[in-house]
Amino acid sequence: xxxxxxxxxxxxxxxxxxxxxxxxxxxxxxxxxxxxxxxxxxxxxxxxxxxxxxxxxxxxxxxxxxxxxxxxxxxxxxxxxxxxxxxxxxxxxxxxxxxxxxxxxxxxxxxxxxxxxxxxxxxxxxxxxxxxxxxxxxxxxxxxxxxxxxxxxxxxxxxxxxxxxxxxxxxxxxxxxxxxxxxxxxxxxxxxxxxxxxxxxxxxxxxxxxxxxxxxxxxxxxxxxxxxxxxxxxxxxxxxxxxxxxxxxxxxxxxxxxxxxxxxxxxxxxxxxxxxxxxxxxxxxxxxxxxxxxxxxxxxxxxxxxxxxxxxxxxxxxxxxxxxxxxxxxxxxxxxxx
Length: 338
Ligand code: F0G
What we know:
The longest helix is centred in the middle third of the chain and has 15 residues, at 133-147. The protein has a 6-stranded mixed beta sheet. α3 runs parallel beside α4, α7 packs across α9 (189-200) and α8 packs across α9 (189-200). By secondary structure, the protein is an alpha/beta fold. The protein is globular and about 60 Å long. The protein has 2 domains: 3-57 and 158-321, Rossmann fold (3-Layer(aba) Sandwich), CATH 3.40.50; 73-156, Rossmann fold (3-Layer(aba) Sandwich), CATH 3.40.50. The protein has helices at residues 3-6, 33-38, 60-73, 86-98, 113-121, 133-147, 157-163, 165-174, 189-200, 218-221, 243-253, 262-276, 286-296, 317-321; strands at 29-31, 46-50, 79-82, 102-107, 125-129, 150-151, 180-184, 207-213, 256-260, 305-309.
């Protein structure tokens, strides 16, 4: 069953909406006892919502199935997005499936290799922007409005609607919404979507704990960042589109939006792969880095904790390659000591 069919009653679709699906959603919630131990929490209290198993390897597919289905229903002439990579990969794949033109505006030199390869293979029209994501998004919104293309960034409310289904899945598996949720924040659509999802379930009780990279933390600093910098290219964003709804999610839920350094992000990224067997991309590890940072400062969360891992580690092979250990050589015919 498609994600839209599963949650049809809670999504803005009708029987006339043509569904564009690649089998998104229904991602695993993985118990993470080594992470719990590292954070000083009880076994069984920490879970990873691994969104890397979506068809294009990130959570964007949940929003894209709804946005693309609605674009097709509305007779769109084509879709357009600005992206740090994952939105572009997802839009490219779903537009290919829908038979729609897809134009992606990418900040030059700042998109992880795997994501770029996906856009290329799905046949997207790639526009390199001489500037960062924030400049690319401004340009994309203006050009799409002028030329009547459908924007499939999270400024499109159908994207948020689709992405809120992840909250439903988490609550189904746990039997109720978690007490705390840790997640990365970039353009701030996903924290907005999860909070909407938890609220729709009623009795919202989950503290929303969002984490930005220290070099790209406008919501922590309280002002936009002109030249955002971080190894986590997915969240290298200085002026998030959904800042107001992200701050509302933080305040309504009694949560926080904090920052973590690149060193903390990479340590969490490596820990998850080494100790939990889950390979996510660097940005995805920001929430886990935040959990470990708070725990070390004596601010341990109480109750059940979910960390959202937003994208697959294979998206960014160049960052993974930095961790290559020295390799041993084997010569056929010689004995090899393990
Ligand atoms: N994690 C990953 C892997 C992402 O790709 C993104 C955003 C985020 C977290 C942050 O989510 O923007 O909803 O706060 N990627 C967008 C893109 C910006 O263009 O792919 P957010």
